[in-house]
Amino acid sequence: MMKSTLPWFSGRFPLYLAPMAGVSDKIFRQLCKEYGADVLTTEFVSAEGIFRRNERTRDYLDFDEIERPIGVQLFGANAEHMAEAARQVIDWVRPDFVDLNFGCPVNKVVAKNGGSALLKDCPALAGVAVAVVGAVAPMPVTAKIRIGWDADSINATRIARVLVNAGIAAITVHGRTRAQGYAGAADWNVIGEVAAAVPVPVIGNGDLSSAADVAKRRCETGISGAMIGRAAMSAPWIFSQTKQYLATGEMVDPPALSERWNFILRHCQLAVRAWDAEEPAIRSMRARLMAYSRSMPDAKRLREKFSHVSTLAEVEAIAEENILQREDAQLPAFVAS
């Protein structure tokens, strides 16, 4: 019988926004929350940065009350420093849970024995989990893992049992190995094996690009929740679509083109307000805008235009042109009598 100290699993199937470096900042998290994301997590934060009281690291911890329930995700390999960092996080911002990153495949993290490197070292991984759980009790601690280091060392079920024994309250499993990075297909059979093997909620992650994907994987694997990452970058309304589909079996259309553009412009405006400087804010939005273009008509041309924008006025002009082009394309052709 699955047990949980996390109230958002009580009789529900929560949808998580994945923590994504450079993406899931406070503005984007709140926009996804408006579209129905149930649980949010900060961008991953270096435990060493917190331990050394690095000011930039503290910025990553900033969130507003409306974002709850929210977790702070930490990465690092030194159990003592991870525990102290987790204590400091709680003193500073009091999140709803602490999440441990045992899945990041990025070289600079793995090189320091962090992220998915710990999947190769069960004793070290267990040491980190035990230390953090002990340091922050009774606050719940969760963990995110991959299915293994590479195809020859798929050990997610074993790792999950180690984490449960360490006191971890829920486990997110990304269905790829570290070696895969974000290429190839996620292995949902392994995610299902983990869900069947442990008595805590397992959240499935990987290749969830539509409401139907989430429903299918929930049915096949018995996961207790789903984490959506890259699909939300281009279509954050995936959360509301998924909730509707799970509740009624009906697929809701995505927002109209004008509503999507209003959303994009609002994101840009919020970024400008947060930066208090228009040009650097809009330049920082270029990659985000290119992600949004994937759900828009004429995406290739939009990407080209977005790669050069520096002002709100430029984004507004692109929006106006895109909407007008779409409307023109949908007008019936004039037929002479």
Mean pLDDT: 91
- Largest sheet geometry: 9 strands, parallel
Summing up helix and strand content along with how strands pair, one would put the structural category as: alpha/beta
CATH topology of the largest domain: TIM Barrel
CATH class of the largest domain equals Alpha Beta
Portion of residues in helices?
40-55%
Q: What's the tally of helices?
A: 16
Question: SSE order, as H and E?
Answer: EHEEHHEHEHHEHEHEHEHHHHHHH
Identify the CATH homologous superfamily of the largest domain. Aldolase class I
CATH architecture of the largest domain: Alpha-Beta Barrel
Distance between the termini: 72 Å
Instruction: Sum up the overall morphology in one term.
Output: globular
Number of strands: 9
Number of domains: 2
Radius of gyration: 21 Å
Fraction in beta strands? 5-15%
The parts where pLDDT drops under 50 for at least 5 residues are 331-337
Topology:
Layout: E1 15-17, H1 26-34, E2 40-41, E3 45-46, H2 47-51, H3 55-59, E4 70-75, H4 79-93, E5 97-102, H5 107-110, H6 122-136, E6 141-148, H7 156-166, E7 171-177, H8 188-197, E8 202-205, H9 211-221, E9 225-228, H10 230-234, H11 238-248, H12 257-275, H13 278-284, H14 286-293, H15 299-306, H16 312-330
Parallel strand pairs: 1-9, 2-4, 3-4, 4-5, 5-6, 6-7, 7-8, 8-9
Helix pairs in contact: 4-6, 6-7, 7-8, 9-11, 12-13, 12-16, 14-15
Kindly list the characteristics that best describe this protein.
single chain, 337 residues, alpha/beta, TIM Barrel, 16 helices, 9 strands, disordered C terminus
